[in-house]
Design goal:
14 helices, six-stranded parallel sheet, 13 strands, globular, Rossmann fold
Length: 395
Amino acid sequence: MKEKIRVLHVITRLVAGGADENTLATVQGLDKSLYQVDLLIGGQSDFIFASQSSGARLITLVELVRDPSPIKDGIALWKLMRLIRKGRYHIVHTHTAKAGILGRLAGFLCRTPLVIHTLHGSTFHDSLHPLRSHFYRLLERLAACATTQFVSVGEDLREIYLDARIGQADRYITIRSGFELERFQLQRSEVAERGRRMRESLGIPAQRPVVGTVGRLEMRKGHVYFLQAACQVVKHLPDAVFLIAGDGPASRDLTQQTRKLGIEKNVRFLGYRYDIEDVMAAMDVFVLTSLWEGLPRVLVQAAALGKPIVSFDSEGVREVVIDGDNGFVLPLRDVQGLGERILQLMQDRPAAGRMGERGRALVTADWDVATMVQRISDLYQHLLLRKGITFEPFS
């Protein structure tokens, strides 16, 4: 068939974060000689960040919002259906919770040939109230009936959904959330030099221990536990520096928390950074305190740079961190354990260095953005072929 494959990606809100960067990378990377790609985002998106969506038509649906809103949700569903019918899409590919429910339902009702949903994280995680978690689990089971294929960013997440009886195993595929891997797979000497320059730019002397984390500043990322552990560490290492890279709605509360804990001189809030590999290079230990995830790419990035990792045991962490080998994995909210493990690594630098080096071996080409986009493209074509739909690329 001499026409392009028409694909609509739908995400609840596009902001600086893993799921959002994954979606942007996909819509940008798909071969435009074969695909016509549209990206629909909700009204609560970061439109400066969304402007990076080159190669795809950007559509805003203001009624698509994150929190439940029966009136807005109904309007969003109706508008989605109208858009899908008009666009005659071959594929509707949804991301995140609200867009995943409404987008899949709209695609199914419009008889779109393929309705695909990427799992970036669980919608019914343990941090939710049990009744709310149960309700979301039921919604996901219903939405599974309208789903041709699930794409999971990690094996752990896939198993969580299958254990919850959401869809069948043969409708799941794992495709890692890719990033520009070469930016992080640097030689040890290059990591050391970049770390030296970053410390110099931040005014941090070379001998001071540096612990850091990267992530959007919102409740689920658990930065408050990072700060509580920092308070514990500072009692033993008063010159330790704690870097927090990222921006988000919890910024003011976290800044106030550092004052309450008396560690404002030890903590640096760096905001959103485009040179995150250089920021990570300046760290001696990387920490993740997320309460729920899909598969945190920042851990892969830290491992690629040879950094030892201390993390809470959220979804996907154990696919990157082998406890006691390239880092430590602790129960959620275990602040005391978090502080103790950070201290252990800071007080035995040679052992920490060996841990970091072992992490490098765990990072393979599966994490490269080009691999991710190619696997998604292959999946599209394979599923369309099963429906008897074939295409030829435009020259």
